[in-house]
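Dissemination and training. As part of the outreach component of the grant, students in the summer workshop were shown how a complex can be specified as a set of sequence lines and then modelled as a single object. The example used during the hands-on session is reproduced here so that future cohorts can follow it. Participants entered these lines:
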Amino acid sequence: MSEFHRNPASFRDPSGFVYRRDGLLLRQVNDTYRAHYDALMESGLYDELVSDGLLVPHDAVDPALAMTPHAYQVIAPEPVPFISYPYEWCFGQLKDAALLTLGVQRRALERGLTLKDASAFNVQFVEGRPILIDTLSFELRGEGEPWIAYRQFCQHFLAPLLLMAHVDVRLSRLFTSFLDGLPLDLVSDLLPRRTWLRLSSLLHIHLHARSLRRYSGVRATEHRLYRSVSQTALLGLVDSLESAVRRLSADPGGTEWADYERDHNYSDAARRAKEEQVLRVLEAVKPEVVWDLGANTGAFSRIAARAGARVISLDGDPSAVELNYRGIKEEGETGVLPLLVDLACPTPASGWANTERDSLEHRGPADLLLALALIHHLGITHNVPIARILEWLGRLGRHVLVEFVPKSDPQAQRLLLSREDIFHDFTQESFERTARDYFAIEWQRPVADTGRTLYLMRSLDGATSGWSRAGGTEANAPQVDAVSGT
Amino acid sequence: MGRTPRIAVKSAVSTTGVAVLLLAVLPTPVYAYLDPVSGSIILQVIAAGVFAGVMTTKRYWAHLKRAFGNLRERLSR
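and obtained this result:
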């Protein structure tokens, strides 16, 4: 008897759905979608999009693997290694995802098809680049029909990008509450008045919002101009949206941004020594998946990627994540995925029944966590007791490399500048004692020229965390015996 | 000469902008829970003419530029 698991996020579209059958990722294409699916495959659009890396490739498999009746076909899409969400992307990532969506829509229009969805959740980052993962988003375009997903595109992409560019880059966080994109009337209210003077924001946001309100009781298909929209007009609409998106920027400005490039805490020698130690740990643990927590602009994420790991590079500072993303794009680094996550309040589970979008933790655990100069931020800035931090880390990763920063460190002192030191437990001795409740400490070394210490620890929670979920066993778990030297 | 099509596009666009602006000042009855996409579709069909016009002008201009380019190339040979 086969075991089926329907993907909890795949239920809105009647064209088909995603599920796992005995662990294999499959997508059922329903009978009702037959004509559209055939058009996608036979028009040459699928081949074009896949060969240009814009759409996730799939193999057709035996239709007998279907989960429910009325299946037309069953396909096995190439799995995406790590699912991220638009509210975890920096400005540049959302912008690139928007341009991908518009590029795909343009190519679809040229072949007589159209995107019926323009959801940012249909885009994922694979090997550093955005890719459309919803194969069933395409449909044949009826003669003269407008773009049904125009509103969704504006809500998911243009509206948050405009807010981030014109008001504050942190407004991307609104997406965590509005999972179907930001309501256009809200965005219209929040945008500065000068955006009324620019045609793209005037039309696609301000007038769009008013038109939605005005015609909400009207059947659009009865409008006398419905079915009068030419292909050229829709290509023009795509062009207009594309130039609006391209023009937007949320540039790191001022000295604060430039400072990210420097690391104040280390002498060159200390930094090199720390890099060498991290590299040694990576070579010993041989992790497939590394989560770099508090990655800043991703210097250590890159070291892990070069050592062969797939790295999720997490930071709560939009500027740092933006610079990280720009860096990996410029370098062509495919092993690092920068994400904007506030580690003091990590991405929660959300959506319908809180199962549609996964929490950060649910997408783990990582083989190795890098928690370099992180704990004092959580402990001192956010008042999280050491035991709670360690317990969380133990659930998040099978191994963790922690850099302990003592209170005497200049960086920790900065955090204590204008507050009373109530952190009597924040000592190295207490850290080590507490760590043993959750981890086996396998290795520890001082970071030269600093008062800091690196600890490599193995989670005692490993059996119950996702390692067993992922099919791993103690026998193929990374071993650290090879860590040696100073 | 070089700026003419651009200006044409811009003025076409702003004219429609003004036309569509009228939409904004029309009374706005609110019917919550009804088809949420209607306004998006109607806005598109109203603005479709401009988008088509802009696209056609762009294509025409690109074609013209190409033709001039070819001519210049031929003359310089």
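The longest helix of chain A spans residues 91-110. Students were then asked to discuss how this feature might be tested experimentally.
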